[in-house]
Design brief:
It is built from three helices and four strands; from the N terminus they run ββααββα. With 70 residues, the protein is of the alpha+beta class. It has one domain. The strands form two sheets. The protein has a two-stranded antiparallel sheet with strand order 1-2. A two-stranded antiparallel ribbon has the order 3-4. β3 and β4 form a beta hairpin.
Length: 70
Amino acid sequence: MIRTAKIIFCDNEHGTGDVTYPDFYQESAELAQYFIVSLSLKETRKAAKKAGWSRHNGADYCPQCTEGGI
């Protein structure tokens, strides 16, 4: 079985992939479940928004950048 995952990268100073949704750098059952479920782009954006991510002018921002007023 092959699954495709949608990963959101913070477009602020994290453009090198330092900050992602879901958190790629954290090994957990939650991340594994994310790949198993294989959310659509719309579902991924909705889940990211619940986790504190924002989107402005076509760019995605992590919760840390969102708190900074972007």
